[in-house]
User: What shape does this take?
Amino acid sequence: MRQWAAMLSVLPTQCDLREVGPRDGLQNEAPVPVAERVRLIDALAASGVRRIEAASFVHPSAIPAMAGAEEVLTSIDRRPGVSYTALVPNRKGAERALAAGADELEAFVSASTTHNLKNIKRTPTETLEEIAGIVELAHAAGRPVDAGVATCFGCPYEGDIEPTVVAGYAQRLLDLGADTIFFGDTTGMGSPRRVGLLLDAVEGAGIGLELVGLHFHDTRGTGLANAYAALQRGVSRFDASIGGLGGCPYAPGASGNIATEDLVHMVEDLGVATGISLGSLIDAAHLAEEIVGRRLPGQVMRAGPRSLLVSVDPAVPG
Assistant: This one.
């Protein structure tokens, strides 16, 4: 018991979750009407989620499911204390997102040149140049930028990516003025061991883990284990997707992100506060399932929390 208590004592006291279902989750689905996307965002905000990736300002021809980004951001019922973030691929996207009222911008570069070219049709160097412009625009508008490195645990085209290479990209993003950094396990190639190796490289590059967020996919069933490994190192920022929605159109084999309700269920049981109502989150997961019209992979939305009790009918023999 004392050993377990000692292990829990090194975990963060709070966890900052960014809900990415309305963007990363829905981008891989058949296009969902704007009104339904707004309905999902409002339900997530009502559950206590304080950061919601609401839209992506890419050209509709590239990701048809993200058409209507401006309408989404101007139609949501904005709640005080909730940050509505937007993914932007370039300066033009940043201008659109800022005009629509995004509270925070996200941009990313892939550590895999092949993935970067397939995803945004630029080399990593060209993408970094675009991100420099995004940071400039965002800061001029008083908005922060969370910049990320994709395929940080490996790429389906190039294989393993060295952690020092990933850390090098992170340092370049910080040098460009990014306020915080996130690392994306784009196709679920991460494992607890590889999480540790990456965080070793990040700290070795002089980057404090308080700046770091992690974005895990559950493609190979290690998503929650990876999050726990990161929690043990003191990382407290994570992306998750309601119901386990997600994937990447340009990464073969990518499945959904870790389910938000599954992650909240785990970290709250560890004594790490999220400020999110699990019951309301489960309701939002069922709403997401209704909106996309298919069964979602989240586990807690199906089974309920571990404390859920089943009533016993005394008339039925035991």
Observations:
- The chain has a mean pLDDT of 93.
- Residues 38 and 72 are 6 Å apart (CA to CA).
